[in-house]
Amino acid sequence: MVNRKRITTLTEFIVQRQSEYPHAKGALTRLLNDIATAAKIVNRDINAAGLVDILGYEGKENIQGEAQKKLDVFANEQFVTALKGGAECCAIASEENEKIISFNNEFSELGKYVVAIDPLDGSSNIEANVSIGTIFSIYRRVSEVGEGGKVEDMLQPGINQVAAGYVIYGSSTMLVYTTGKGVNGFTLDPSVGIFCLSHPDMMFPETGSVYSINEGNYIYFPQGIKQYIKYCQESDKNTLRPYTSRYIGSLVADFHRNLIRGGIFLYPGTTTKPSGKLRLLYECNPVAFIAEQAGGKASDGFNRIMEKQPKTLHERSPLFIGPKSMVEKAEEFMRQYKE
Ligand code: P6P
User: Residue 124: CB within 6 Å of ligand 1?
Assistant: First the structure.
């Protein structure tokens, strides 16, 4: 009898952990499974993208004013459909939609949760076959149960997240998430379409030797960032410097590599984009929740990301994220050279 190593599937894991949430009557479990189901469908089509005519521009523009690629639209549709059908979610805020999508059907109106999502982050990398991802945050609704979700359900600080995660569609497809009790990673076994626990209890290394930033924006960086980059490039064996520069231009891919290997990701405010480029609701807050649960830190260079009070759905924030010691060193430069 072959003694095969017992795998833990995502569904088994979520159900096992459900007992840690006495108030959760399985709704969050079902919601996370709805997201995983949509991710598997998106993954299938991303892998086939080179073969099927779903590359190229849908001919519309998303809220960012960027040309929407067909896969962006397709991915958004999959998550909206899965979450609407699952009836645990009463509204979605998506990068692909200017306004919230409120679910006004008799089942979803009873949903206790809302989801903020970037359905296909880094999609400009699709043709280059570079890893891209889905990023999501889950909040308990603050509006009255019994009707579709409202904007105020979405405009909550990141500390109110009940769960957050990302899917990275890379050499393998992984789903990494937290519900506030650690971070766990699941790798998709495409032969059976099951996410299997592959990275239990993920933690940032204490420090790292990677810094990730788009140095093409150098002339627009604040002095603190210019000085921090110089610090990264100086030699010091005690602090692993000079660091290695790694930047893919896909937040999920850059963040995931840094979580595994140890490294800091920075998308600072610049003279041209004072609030940076990344979106607070569905990019910064979810990865910040994961980073903090993995023993790291996430700030805008001065303030904790998860304590920022969002004012609009698509507002931007600078993002400094990684091992605590690396983020605090970058923050030191920001304070020292504050303009
Ligand atoms: P830049 C992708 O468009 C994205 O939103 C993130 O995934 C990524 O980290 C960032 O933008 C890259 O921006 O300006 O360096 O190309």
Answer: yes
